[in-house]
């Protein structure tokens, strides 16, 4: 089970962006923050040294998600990986996390990248990948979700990013949205 910290206090949303070293132009107070550490499961032994910190934050007007992944093997430096919010918590099988979370009720013709939360990143020389995404909508907290790191960058047309390397469960509460 990943180590987690839930913060119900009002906090600066800038912290979510700072986690990924991409602070927004203005800080907006967050109403709800969840930090999750993992991964919960690793599916590719070549990435067993990777550790993740995912921060979900809600503020007036939308959702922020930040990811920092450390400990990549040397062969991953310079590579771009896809990462996405998925509909289910992680499980022992890669497919247990389900498909990509999509905002319900998106108007017809809304681009895939605007309906989902993508956190693609390039691994730096420090063997760290960082990403942050903001969406003008909220993620339902009816059940836990997850963030999955994939083996390839996200295809902008199909949303596919190849095999699942590891998965971090985001333990949302059963209340709220």
Features:
globular; Immunoglobulin-like; 36% strand; 13 strands; mainly beta; four-stranded antiparallel sheet; 177 residues
Description:
The chain has a 5-stranded antiparallel beta sheet with strand order 1-4-6-7-11. 6% of the residues lie in helices and 36% in strands. A hairpin with a 2-residue loop joins β6 and β7. The protein starts with a strand and ends in a 7-residue tail after the last strand. By secondary structure, the chain is mainly β. The longest helix is centred in the N-terminal third of the chain and has 6 residues. It contains 2 helices and 13 strands; from the N terminus they run ββαβββββββαββββ. The protein has one domain: Superoxide dismutase, copper/zinc binding domain (Immunoglobulin-like, Sandwich), CATH 2.60.40.200.
List the helices and strands and how they pair.
Layout lengths: L3 E4 L3 E2 L1 H6 L9 E2 L1 E7 L2 E2 L8 E9 L2 E9 L9 E2 L1 E4 L25 H4 L5 E2 L6 E7 L9 E6 L13 E7 L7
Antiparallel strand pairs: 1-4, 2-3, 4-6, 5-13, 6-7, 7-11, 8-10, 9-12, 12-13
Brief description of this entry?
This protein is mainly beta and 177 residues long. The protein has a single domain, classed as Superoxide dismutase, copper/zinc binding domain (Immunoglobulin-like, Sandwich). The chain has two helices and 13 strands.
């Amino acid at each position: 089970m990943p180590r987690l910290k839930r913060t119900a206090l009002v906090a600066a949303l800038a912290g979510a962006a700072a986690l990924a070293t991409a602070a927004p132009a203005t800080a907006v107070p967050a109403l709800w923050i969840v930090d999750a550490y993992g991964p919960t499961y690793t599916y590719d032994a070549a990435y067993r040294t990777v550790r993740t910190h995912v921060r979900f934050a809600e503020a007036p007007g939308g959702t922020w998600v930040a990811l920092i992944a450390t400990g990549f093997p040397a062969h991953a430096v310079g590579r771009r990986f896809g990462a996405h919010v998925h509909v289910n918590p992680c499980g022992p099988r890669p497919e247990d996390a389900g498909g990509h979370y999509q905002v319900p009720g998106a108007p017809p013709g809304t681009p895939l990248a605007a309906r989902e939360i993508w956190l693609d990143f390039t691994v730096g020389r420090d063997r760290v990948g960082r990403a942050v995404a903001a969406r003008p909508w909220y993620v339902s907290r009816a059940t836990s979700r997850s963030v999955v790191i994939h083996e390839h960058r996200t295809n902008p047309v199909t949303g596919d990013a190849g095999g699942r390397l590891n998965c971090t469960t985001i333990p949302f509460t059963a209340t709220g949205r």
